[in-house]
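Handout, section B. The chain below has 151 residues.
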Amino acid sequence: MKFLARLALLAGLLLAGCTGAHARAPLESSLQDAGGNRPDLLYVVLFSLPDCPYCVAVRDAYLPALLDDPRFRGRLRIREVSIGSSRLLKDFNGERITHADVARRYKVKFAPTVLFLDGHGQPRADALLGGDSVGLYGGYLENRVIQGLAQ
């Protein structure tokens, strides 16, 4: 089983190195976005930790694929919050808050965790916890996005 988990992680990391321009740009951390209160808009927020290989795979392989999917084009905002960071970002209310405080607000303690939120910061789909260990992560992520957009 450990062999399959390592193989899946290696595949995700290799895929991360082969993705397009989205993989090279850092993810936006500000949760507030102009026009972000549209009812058809979904915020996909990755909660990560430094040196987390599963976080790298999610950030560089799986999230950019969502942006390239024509079904979701223009309807998603991808963001990243570093669980323990004291860096500031703008929350959904426009207030400056630390990344760590955002993680505490949403009770996120595990990385990677992906939340699916509306423009007011309210959940629209179940959280996705953990990384890809069996090669099914992309499907789980896509299903949560579809669930969130359907709300």
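Note. The longest helix spans residues 2-18. Compare this with the example in section A.
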